[in-house]
Amino acid sequence: MVTYGRGVQDDDLVFRALADPVRRLLLDALFQRDGRTLGELETVVNEHVEMTRFGVAKHLKLLEQADLVVSRKKGRQKLHHLNPVPIQQIHSRWIGKYTERAGIAALLLGLKQQVETPEPTKDDTP
């Protein structure tokens, strides 16, 4: 199930979810291969950070609350799927408007570096 209607509090949940490196790792794992079990995700996390199954489950729960992960039962397994819609909405709302002005910002940063870089001093040359 993909969700589309979001409010400010939902954005806060997404930002909070994305703030943690373990949760970003889980999202990356689901991006690489969607529909993973808790055990598979635990293995991925433990390649980088030592964490219990319960810890990984807590991170997944927060990702589900932010609608970034959707879980479905398939037989005896519970599979976790990435929902990219909230991230796209964050991009459209927050990041996109700043990247539109990236050209101007890059020019201003270049000018700032040029102005702040001291000119080479002339040594006493023979």
TrEMBL record:
InterPro entries: ArsR-like_HTH, HTH_ArsR_DNA-bd_dom, HTH_MetalResp_TranReg, WH-like_DNA-bd_sf, WH_DNA-bd_sf
Domain HTH arsR-type positions: 3-102
GO molecular function: DNA binding; DNA-binding transcription factor activity
CDD domains in the cross-refs: HTH_ARSR (cd00090)
Presence of keyword Transferase: no
Domain of life, per lineage: Bacteria
Alphabetic keyword roster: DNA-binding, Transcription, Transcription regulation
One Pfam family, short name: HTH_20
PANTHER family documented for this protein: TRANSCRIPTIONAL REGULATOR, ARSR FAMILY, TRANSCRIPTIONAL REPRESSOR SDPR
Name of protein: DNA-binding transcriptional regulator, ArsR family
Organism per entry: Auraticoccus monumenti
